[in-house]
Hints:
By secondary structure, the chain is α/β, with parallel strands linked by helices. It has helices at residues 13-25, 36-46, 62-70, 86-95; strands at residues 5-9, 29-33, 50-53, 77-79.
Amino acid sequence: MSKATILVVEDDPSVQNLITTALKMYGYDSVTAGNGQTAVMQAATRSPDVIFLDLGLPDMDGVEVIRKVRTWSALPIIVISARSEETDKIEALDAGADDY
């Protein structure tokens, strides 16, 4: 059985490294993206099993990434964000995120 591949979308290199290192320790492969445009491209071309998505990206809001991916894919999207406002959570989940 092959390892699950997780697309980690995070613009902070230290946080991105922390997440990918932890995933590797637990036997997961990872692909990374530091902005929304790259995230959508990686999701389309690399066929990850799940996306871990930060909402605060430099080129577009993470909710927009969710909306773009949802036009062609139902792959699981887990939001990992420092945003704690209830409205941010509702907007991400309404856009198609599977968990926050």
